[in-house]
Write a structure and sequence with these properties.
Length: about 325
């Protein structure tokens, strides 16, 4: 279905005519977050630092979980291990995303970050399901857990995860870095659950709390992973970004002085930090187009932070002068 936006009386003019190629790309760069290049550098530095932290502590926590027998601690170590892989992937695709456009990839490599975010979200989803399944087994067959050791190691893990989450939050301006941040937040929740589990076991001896808290954290991560999967699929399907209102954009374009109507409006995410727009704009006369085009570009940049714009003008064309040339149309085949 084609959406058409009108704010002005068209006065019964002749049908609009596509003028062919009066398209233009503005050079107005505005972003909701930090400057694009600076934001990407910030994300990469944060990812590198958190990767080093996560790799160092994942091994320590895995050994601690094996020594104490805690599923909560082992699940947190598993999160940190997958975080190391996801952070490495996030760092790699972030660098790919900065590569320039080519003849084969005219929009550049920005979608690599979206693919990385999708993979990380699926990894987080799968790990959460595994923890839920393991927790169910532990509920049926409880294991002895060293509560004091769990508290000590989980407290250290909580400090590491707090630092990692803070570092990533400074550069979480793309789906890729947000997916990595959710991995780390999952570890943070896991550390809190492990501390709570260790305290309960240490003071009461109730072993069942360990798998119950692990399951709770896993369910929270499942919800977060599902939200990220939906966001990345929306980008890959070239849907309208969630923070933008499609109808409001169309009406704003139609409200520019000199614009009669807008149709074939498309708004989509080009990369992690850039939104693109294309539309057909009907105007009264071609001489008005330069002024209208500049006004449309400025409005889209200021109000919606859309900096990659392609607009095609259309205007009524008068009937040709002179005698029309008749054309005979043969509607039936002739056979001898």
């Amino acid at each position: 279905m084609t959406s058409r936006f009108h704010l002005h009386d068209e006065g019964g003019a002749e049908p609009a005519h596509d003028d062919g190629h009066d398209s233009n790309h503005p050079h107005l760069h505005r972003h909701a977050g930090p400057d694009g290049a600076a934001g990407r550098r910030l994300s990469s530095r944060a990812l590198s630092r958190v990767l080093a932290l996560t790799c160092a502590f994942a091994l320590l926590e895995a050994l601690g979980g094996w020594w104490s027998g805690s599923l909560a601690l082992l699940s947190d170590a598993g999160h940190m291990l997958t975080d190391s892989l996801s952070l490495l992937l996030a760092l790699w695709v972030a660098r790919i995303g900065r590569m320039p456009a080519t003849d084969r990839l005219s929009f550049g490599h920005g979608r690599a970050e979206v693919l990385g975010a999708l993979f990380n979200s699926l990894l987080l989803f799968g790990l959460s399901l595994f923890i839920v399944a393991e927790a169910v087994l532990r509920l049926r067959n409880p294991h002895a857990v060293n509560g004091g050791g769990v508290m000590l190691i989980a407290a250290a893990g909580l400090l590491v995860n707090l630092l990692a989450a803070w570092l990533l939050s400074q550069g979480a301006h793309s789906l890729n870095s947000k997916a990595a941040l959710w991995h780390v937040l999952g570890d943070l929740f896991g550390s809190l659950a492990a501390i709570a589990s260790g305290m309960v076991i240490y003071f009461t001896g109730w072993m069942t709390v360990d798998p119950l808290l692990s399951m709770l954290v896993a369910l929270l991560l499942l919800a977060a992973a599902w939200r990220l999967i939906r966001q990345t699929v929306l980008v890959l399907m070239e849907g309208v970004p969630g923070h933008l209102d499609y109808n409001r954009i169309g009406l704003a374009l139609a409200g520019i002085p000199g614009v009669a109507s807008v149709h074939d409006l498309h708004v989509w995410t080009m990369s992690a930090e850039r939104v693109a727009l294309s539309a057909h704009v009907r105007i009264a006369a071609p001489r008005d187009w330069p002024r209208i085009l500049a006004a449309c570009q400025l409005m889209l940049s200021r109000e919606f932070c859309i900096d990659h714009v392609t607009l095609q003008a259309e205007w009524p064309v008068p009937a040709p002068a002179g005698k029309p040339v008749p054309i005979d149309i043969v509607s039936e085949d002739k056979h001898e």
